[in-house]
User: Fold this.
Amino acid sequence: MSMAPAQKINTPARRRIDLQVVGPIVALIALVLIGMALNSNFLSYANITNVLARSSFIGIIAVGMTFVITAGGLDLSVGSMAAFVAGLMILVMNLLTDRLGVTLPVIFAGVALALIAGLVAGLINGLLITRVGIEAFIVTLGTMGIYRSLITWLADGGTLSLGFEMRELYRPVYYGGIAGISWPILAFVAVAIIGEIVMRHTAFGRHCAAIGSNERVARYSSIAVLRVRLATYVLLGLLVGFAVVMYVPRLGSASASTGLLWELEAIAAVIIGGTLLKGGFGRIWGTVVGVLILSLIGNILNLTDFVSPYLNGAIQGAVIILAVVLQRKGAADR
Amino acid sequence: MIKTLIATTALVTGFSAAAGAETIGVSIPAATHGWAGALNFHAERTVERLEKVYPDLDFVLTTTPDSATQVSDLEDMIATRGIDALVVLPFESEPLTGPIQRIADSGTWVTVVDRGLAVEGIEDLYVAGDNNSFGRTAGEYFAETLDEGAKVVVMRGIPSTVDNERVAGFEAAIDGAGIEVLAMDHGNWNRDTAFTLMQDWLSRFGQIDAVWAADDDMAVGALAAIEQAGRTGEMFVVGGAGMKEMVDRIRSGDKSVPVNVTYPPAMISTAIEMTAAGIVGNAPMSGDFIIASELITPDNADDFYFEDSPY
Assistant:
């Protein structure tokens, strides 16, 4: 029943190297080699931890975005949504601190709130897209503006900050970890592994690909198209909430500039990873590689005086296009 | 882009008082970041106060998300409210120069705040902060405090003339002091970008003696990265603009944050007060009024702490 583009790609790749599969990995390895050549601290424990931990927010969101895009959708609101959820979480945690003091239940309440708020925000996007039938691009463009304005309004144009003592209590969620691996990295890895399993080995993942590939055929195959599509947006919203849970302990603040352009970074990571923007085929591990490529570019540029900082964006853009060109060439050869 | 699509103009105040009353229009950017938030806070507070002091004065306060909306706002003020004086912080210099010039030509008093117009001599009164002095004040502190051979990193803002003037002032002040600038990059006045940038600089450089973050939001990000790396005692961080959390840390004698440099958003109050005084009374108010950046130290920090300001 389900489409099997994954197999189609894998079978002939046994002998010949398939660029669509290795393209992103080649780009990642090239970046690592460049980093090593340019700075001896590149492979240090601290730098690797920094890069992986800071990738986790976009990474967690990008895993959810992979499902949305695979099912033929798009979500432009995730950056603003993250900022709004973070602001809401901080406000409520500050209110609760006044009542309950600096205690763990306040953190649990904040975490629960962030997850629920993300889920509800995703549900709103999903319902408007599937039940009201508005284009995903338009709906999420609208909610993107709404959430961005709401956070500005909540923060009164300034910055919402978690109370100092509460920040100290919550701080280890970003900076702590087990066995030297920090929590955001572990969270990212867990989300990615679960995402990969769901995408490849469950009916939901297959349904997403089927809908993105051909919605009408999917409907004839008795797939609940609207429900699956709705579920992808709810899942993405929930993951945005989860990313916020890891983000807030970092600086303990949210403002109008929080999460700016995260949506584009997440979408770029998904596409670099080999997922088709028009839907029908998604690859979670590719998304993870895409996220790492994007953060490594920034990291390497910061570690060197290689180019003028004015040109950082140009380098980033060139690498994104290059990584995707590598894959398209592979596809054309086949 | 999106802000253009969804943001609307907010007409905040304005009650018509006695006939023959004079009206002052105030047009400022919307509160999209901390400094602009404080600008709005001070503008609203000043308007409230002045309405009590001068019952004959009317105020129209608008906040705008972009240049195009600001132009429409100004047209509305002239057409429907018949303002006698205008206090404007232009969103951008070039697009606003023409419309403001037409207003000035029609005989309306014009006060321009902070961002100068592209053509000189339009405005009756110009009130502004001094970006060069902002950078110079920080640079002078670096030159005095740091020993020869000290190594510093510099975070710049969003690439703009404001940022260029600040950095030029800073570089001129440390010139000849033997301070080595290890790296200079754009933190875009953003906490998260500054955090990431500082993490990478800490990996890259074994010795950093001081950070000029040029803005308090960036200073917050830099301080978090330094704390994470466990290098808190090694360097100090100088931000700018006088965010109240930073002023509070200076007040309590924090070694990591020894001083700060002002770029007061309350300059909008200066502009509105001077305009009102010029309209109502006979005190001459035309000319340029440049507000120098001051150094906030533990000794004078109390004077710069505003409890109820959002910034």
In short: DSSP finds ten helices and 13 strands in chain B. The CA atoms of residues 223 and 237 of chain B lie 7 Å apart. The radius of gyration of chain B is 21 Å.
